[in-house]
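Proteins fold reproducibly. Next comes a concrete instance:

***
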Amino acid sequence: MDINTIIARRVRDLRDQQKLSLDTLAKRSGVSRSNISLIERGESSPTAAALDKLAVGLGVTLASLFEDSTPAAVALPVSRLTEQVCWTDPASGYMRRNLSPGLPSHLQLVEVEFPAGQTVRYDSFHRDVDIQQQVWIMAGQMRLSVGDQVWDLQTGDCLSMALDKPITFHNPGKIAARYLVALCK
């Protein structure tokens, strides 16, 4: 299934489950009603920043927006490489792969390949749910700004943080960085 179709279905399903109108989700997320409508119809390739705002508005993790919510996808306790959902941010080119199986869990694993010289800012930090995140650098380097604190991370480094402040991911290197994100809610 196409990633934009998965995102569209997931956002629409979460909004429906919470009985939120497009206007209400727009107010809660800071994403325009028309943009949410385009995303839900699979007619838009949303940026990471827009998806993060939607996740905050829906009270879920960003990774959960990439979960295939079809019954067959949710039933298995294994996540095969060939079936893992990949998505590329149209603004920065960073690629994320959801590694976790579709079973309900408080832990989600995501692999990211982040192009050299690129930056992504997540300014949505007023969340209704506590989310802890760890970022383990598998290759390359990353500069993470968490609120006012800046961390320069190299291969093998692991940073733990709460998602309660603005976060900026930046790859200052000349090669793509690869890292694992572990989210716990």
Observations:
- Residues 29 and 54 are 5 Å apart (CA to CA).
- The two ends are 27 Å apart (CA to CA).
- The chain has five helices and ten strands.
- Helices lie at 3-17, 22-29, 33-40, 48-58, 71-74.
